[in-house]
Amino acid sequence: MHVIDFQSADAKPVGERAAGRPVAPISHILESTALRINSHPVLLAAGSYVCATADLLDQAPLVWHEQAGGMYRWEQLHTVQVQDRMLEPSGLLLVHVQPHSGEQTETAGDEVNPERLRDHLLEFRIELCKAGLEYVRKHLSVRVSGGQSTFQHQLVKGMVADILTTFYMAETLHEDRLLSRSSDIASFRTHAWLHEELDEAFRQIQRLGGGYGYLRHGVSAYTYAGQLVKNLLLPDREGY
């Protein structure tokens, strides 16, 4: 993950997601951040719903079903796609999943556990937020307000700074000796805090974008997908 540099009106994202390239589609972001085992993507059903794409489903995904307490092959699950018009522009699919009666769980090993899958979904949400900010940057890059570039206004720069601070905290979390290694702070509470910070970052991006692409398209699609992922992680965790 790479923080976006907004120090000037024509600033570009740095790193492997260099600007000039189109903003990554939401479906591609989910696919690129998915955990994989032997080329199979692994999805998390924290409750009884998973978020996927048509391409991920074509790859015979595995699903860690937390309510059932194990991992299943896709064909071991009874699946029903949930219709959501807000998701249509994003290419994401919301699927209700339930293991068929008598199905045996797969052996996951040490490489798969719910916490690691939550890490990947948190990364997905962070990348969504970054893409939303880049989407807004592209939209506002040619706009002028009060006789100067919109990005030169102090209020806009302050909002962007707040968003970039959230990205920085999320990216450096694994290096924080207190938050990432202290047994006194549960990992799900750290995640809850980061998700709350991302909530505000998404709100700031919505404000920067104004009515652009409202409601189902543009930056709103990134915001909605990010909120959906957070909601999927909420069940069964007090304070999460």
How does this model look, in words?
Helix content is 42%, strand content 16%. With 240 residues, the protein is of the alpha+beta class. A hairpin with a 4-residue loop joins strand 4 (62-65) and strand 5 (70-73). Helix 3 (114-140) runs antiparallel to helix 7 (219-233), helix 4 (154-171) runs antiparallel to helix 6 (187-209) and helix 6 runs antiparallel to helix 7. The protein is elongated, with a radius of gyration of 19 Å. Mean pLDDT is 79; it is low at 1-19.
The helix count comes to: 7
Strand proportion = 15-25%
Strand order of the largest sheet: 1-2-4-5
Q: Estimate the global geometry from the Cα principal axes.
A: elongated
**Estimated helix fraction:** 40-55%
- End-to-end Cα distance: 24 Å
The major β-sheet equals: 4 strands, mixed
Name the structural class. alpha+beta
Q: Helix-strand pattern, N to C?
A: HEEEHEEEEHEEHHHH
Low-confidence stretches: 1-19
Arithmetic mean of pLDDT:
79
Number of distinct beta strands: 9
Radius of gyration from CA coordinates:
19 Å
